[in-house]
Structures are given as C-alpha cells and as structure tokens.
Amino acid sequence: MNRRQFLGALPAAFALAPRPAGAAAGEVSVFLNEPIGDISPYVHGHFIEHLGGVIYDGVWVGEGSKIPNVRGVRKALVDAMKPLGRTVMRWPGGCFADSYDWRDGVGPASQRPRKPNFWFDSAKLRKVPLTHPSRNDTNHFGTNEFIRFCRLIECEPYIAANVRSLTAKDFYDWIDYCNAPAGSSTLADRRAAAGDADPYNVRFWGVGNESWGCGGNMTAGEYSVEYRKFTAWVPRYGDQYSFIASGPNSHDFKWTREFFARMTEKGPRQLSRVWGWALHYYCGTTGKSSTDFTANDAYQLLASANRMDNLIRQNWHIMSEYDPNHSVKFAIDEWGAWHPDANALAPHHLFGSPQTMRDALVAGLTLDTFQRHADKVAMANVAQLVNCIQTLFLAHEDQFCVTPTYHVFAMYKDHQNARAVRAEFMAPLVDYQHQDKPASVARLAGSASLAGRTLTLTAVNTSLTEPLPAVVHLHGGAAKEARGESLAAADIHVHNNFQQPNAVKPQPLTVDASAGGALRVTLPPMSVVKLQAILM
Fold first, then answer.
1. CATH code: domain of residue 518
2. Same domain (yes/no): 120, 194
3. Whole-angstrom distance between the N-terminal and C-terminal Cα of the chain?
4. CATH of residue 136
5. How many structural domains does the chain have?
6. Are 401 and 490 members of one domain?
7. Are residues 337 and 399 in the same domain?
8. DSSP of 249-309
9. Peptide bond preceding 93: is omega within 30 degrees of 0, i.e. cis?
10. pLDDT at residue 343, as a whole number
11. How far apart are CA 152 and CA 79, in angstroms?
C-alpha cells in the first residue's frame, strides 16, 4: 500500500475506531470541510420479487379487490412509501428474474398465461394449491403494473433481465417495449395500446442476477461473455442506460477479479458498459429464530452486519486494478438479515419472519456503512420490501403494518442527496461470547452528511443494556440549534405486528447544542438515532 492508498483508507478506518477501554462515553468528530461524496437516494433502494407473498398479497391486491388499492396496488403500501423519498425499486428478481419472460406479463390480464414460478417447488409451497399465484404465476403483475407502482411511490424503476433462459434479443425487445416512443415501433404501440403512450424511460437494467448461482451457474469468465453480448448494442432512443453486472456472493473476491480481468481483455473501454457492480451480502441469522435469540446471538449478528464495510473495501481494491478511475460503482442490490422462515401470516409466504429491534440495528449499521462509502456505493437495495427477509412491511389480506426496519429508512431519508462528510465514532467495544470464545463488536458507529447548513448525523448504539452519553465535536463549524430522534425498545426482541403495529416507533431525543461547537446527547441502549443541527 502506498502513501496515497494509506491516507485514503484512514477515513473509514477511523469511522469505526474503538475508544480505549477506560473511556466513559462516546465521542464523535465530524469534519465539516472533508467531503466524501454525495449520498445517492438510490442507496436507500428497495427490491420486490415474485416470491411468496411479496407481490401477490403484498404489493398487488388486484383492481377488483375490496382491500383499498390504487389500480390494483395496495393503497396502504403506496401511502407508507412516500415518506421514504424518491429512491429506486428493483424487480422482478432475484432468482425469479432468470426464469421470467417479460412478454407473459404484458397485454390484457385475462389473456396472460399462467406459468410455474421459479419458487414453485419450494418445500413450504408444496402444501399450497397449484392454482395459487405463488406457485403458478398469473402474470397479473407485469411490466405495466410495475411501472405503475413505481410512479405511484415516485421511485425509479430498476429491471433485472433474464440472462439464463432468454437471449440478448429478448432483452433488446424489453427495452424497446419500455422506452420507445409510441408510433416508432410495434412494441411501443403495444405498450400504448395498454394505456401507456408515454415511454417508461427505464434507466437501470440488471444484466442477469446471481449468475454464479440460480442465474446460470456460470463462471465469472462465462458471465463476462454474456454480459458483453447483452450490452454490445441496445435500442437507446436518446436514453442513457445504467447497466448493472451480477457481482459476487459475499466474500467471493475471485468472481470480482475474474470478471473485471475478462471484461478488460479487449481494452479498458469495455468497462464503460458497466455502471454498477452488484455485490450481494446477507449477514444471515443467529439464534433459533428472528425472535428467539440470546444477547450473544444479537451481538454476533451485528458483527456480521459490520462485515459489509470490509467487503466494500476489498472489492473496491480489486476493481481499482482494472478500473483505476473507478468508473464502476457498487450497486449492492441485495442485502439484509435472513432468519429462518417463521412467517405465519399465510401459508404461501416464503422467507418471512417478524422483524425485531435487532433487525433495525442491522439496517442502521448497514445504511451508515453505505453512506460512509458514498464515493463508492451508487445504489443499494434491501431485500425485500414486503413479507420477505429484512422486510419493511408486513401485509396479508386487509392487514398491514410497518416494521422497525421501515422506521430506520424513514429516519435516514434526510441523508439522501446530501454530501457525506468524514466522521470518527469512538467508544468502548461491546464484549460478548461467540462459540464459547471472547468476541467484541463496535459499540458506536454511524455517518454524517451536509445539505446546505443542515448537518444530519445517524448512529447506532449496539449495547443492549447501557445508554451511551456522547459528545459530537463539530470541526469547521458550530451549531445554533439541534434536534434528535431515536428508535429503541425496552427489549431487543420487541417487534411490530398487526395487533401491535406501533410497538417500535421513533421517539424525540434531547440534544444539547448550547456549546455551539459540540453537541451532547445520550443514545439509549440498542438504539438507532438521528441528530440534525442547523449550523451558524
């Protein structure tokens, strides 16, 4: 590592630096004049897949439903999404994407074919009737309906194309259907006949999904050939497209190296076709279930969530060998805690489980990681929006509620389009036991950003038992006023459900700004907090 690389690594290293064990409280230093990069709203992105209860019973209830809806989309979901900002929505998968023929989901709904879903033969679904859309998809939610949903919630659409079982021409045709002006092509006229004369102007296109696994079981070299083929030419209609390549599974750095090496065999300009690198990382689970776990289990999951930081760093270093100007950024389009399937909402819901305060801490730690790496991460999509994995919403029939993870996204919204600035977070480590061996996790971690004269700072206190008095030092400025809010609970296992939809929700947090150049605040145990200061 040369001097420049060493200095470049310092900001993030300090962001998680532990304080000496004798220190009594937390300290945060915010360097207002040391920008990292602009925080894209797409870093707070979302993901929906034709999987279990995500689409059918989650997003889509049907236009004839008695459940309140906006042209078939669950109205409660539309209303709840608006406070989260104008971000991005990924669809139709996931593993489903590489089995999906987009033509099945356009045209009159009554004429669309029923076809086996990728998840058709999951063990849990074998007890569900074959006619249920979770097994044989009705295709009632297709491209038109997805775009409708995105427009209702003011999100940019991100479509993942089928590389495993369709051709590059099918990909071109899908772009044609979405983006060609009415009257210019047969497919554009078909879209207009369905009621959408104006082009969809879809900018983000994923070229396959998890091509190392369910997306084709390819090697990185094999996938690079397919990627070049799919992106060699597309009908542009004046649009600038952002193509996203299928990145590695977790710590598979070999996949990153081989893809970038093979892509640049014909010269570095080949990387101009790659906008985003889709690293996938699930921090997994600990304990018996999402609600049955010990304190040690909780700390281990938080430590696993923090590994995202190292994955970003190591992949970025490899990418720099082939892309020294870093034209390719991260599009981390699947992330989250993934617990054992324990969702009793409906028999057809897959990979669902109650979301506790532990999951909220995972969300806060992960979003702060992305924001500290604002110069590297251009997009990230939590998996998944409703009824699945680290979900923001639970829905079944006419019942609906938000999860603690939803509240974290709402609290972090003010970071969107702001400029990330360097910040150091220091506090004693939290010690715990993992597999009968001593382990530790950072007690305090966070990120900071500036929008005009407004400073937004978010942070997580990972201690399950101890509040954390902290001083926030403002280097290069002073605050004339400040406010705060916290998301916390009396017990780490607390979660929202249909019977208690507000068991976990944000509360005001007192912030002392009387010193001007420093803020004083006490972070509750196991909390996600947001501070906002108006600078002089």
1. 2.60.40.1180
2. yes
3. 40
4. 3.20.20.80
5. 2
6. no
7. yes
8. ETT-HHHHHHHHHHHGGG-GGGGGG--EEEEEEEEE--SSSSS---HHHHHHHHHHHTHHH
9. no
10. 63
11. 9
Assess whether 8 and 46 both reside in one domain: no
Same domain flag for 443 and 402: no
The rounded distance, in Å, linking the Cα atoms of 376 and 320 is: 11
Give residue 507's Cα distance to chain centre.
24
pLDDT attached to residue 177: 98
Q: Of the residues 49, 145, 156, 210, which is catalytic?
A: 210
CB 458 within 8 A of CB 412: yes
Please identify, among 364, 386, 417, the residue that sits at the C-terminal boundary of a domain: 417
Question: Are residues 21 and 64 both part of a single domain?
Answer: no
Does the bond joining 92 to the residue before it have cis omega, within 30 degrees of 0? yes
**CA 335/CA 371 separation, integer angstroms:** 15
In contact, 222 and 163? CB cutoff 8 Å? no
User: Same domain, yes or no, for 411 and 425?
Assistant: no
**Structural domain that includes position 157:** 41-417
258, 334, 424, 485: the catalytic one is 334
- Answer whether 383's CB lies under 8 Å from 51's CB: no
Q: Among residues 282, 146, 278, which one has the least CA distance to residue 208?
A: 278
Measure the CA–CA gap between 338 and 391, rounded to whole angstroms: 10
**Which two three-digit tokens encode residue 524?**
């509750």
Measured CA distances, 177 to 113, 273, 357 (Å): 19, 21, 43
> Other C-beta atoms within 10 Å of 288: how many?
13
The pair of structure tokens assigned to 455 is 């400073």
Residue keyed to tokens 């009737």: 129
- Does 239 lie in the same domain as 356? yes
**Residue 448 corresponds to which tokens in the numbers above?**
């900071």
**Is pTM, for the whole model, over 0.90?**
yes
Amino acid 14: pLDDT: 36
Quick one: CA dihedral 422, 20, 488, 304, positive or negative?
Answer: positive
CA distances from 111 to 147, 207, 245, 457 (A): 20, 28, 33, 51
d(CA 475, CA 384): 38
DSSP 8-state symbol, 347: T
Mean pLDDT by 10 residues, the chain (536 residues): 36 41 73 99 99 97 97 99 97 98 97 95 91 95 99 98 98 98 97 97 98 98 98 90 98 99 94 98 97 98 98 99 98 98 84 96 99 99 98 98 99 99 98 97 98 98 98 97 98 97 98 95 98 97
210 included as an active-site residue: yes
Q: Tell me if residue 63 is catalytic.
A: no
Shortest CA distance to 386 belongs to which of 81, 68, 65, 44?
Answer: 81
